[in-house]
Write a structure and sequence with these properties.
The protein has helices at about 20-35, 55-60, and strands at about 45-50, 65-70. The radius of gyration is 12 Å and the shape is flat. With about 70 residues, the protein is an alpha+beta fold.
């Protein structure tokens, strides 16, 4: 994966830019988890108290298998 400068937005799985530093960190963590997977499986995420699903949608867009419990 290409390095993202602090003044750039990180691309999501579709190539669209994610806004802000929180999303850049999120994208980097998901990339790290994906690269570290032994079987190539998508990172699994449990979003407890997910509400409207804003984080779940962002994580799914980055390739995670997400379960939301509200």
């Amino acid at each position: 994966a290409a390095a993202v400068r602090p003044d750039q937005n990180a691309p999501d799985a579709t190539g669209a830019a994610l806004p802000g530093p929180v999303h850049r960190v999120l994208a980097a963590e998901v990339a790290r988890a994906t690269e570290g997977a032994r079987d190539g499986a998508a990172p699994r995420v449990l979003d407890v108290g997910g509400g409207s699903g804003a984080w779940a949608v962002a994580l799914a867009g980055l390739g995670c298998a997400v379960t939301v419990v509200d």
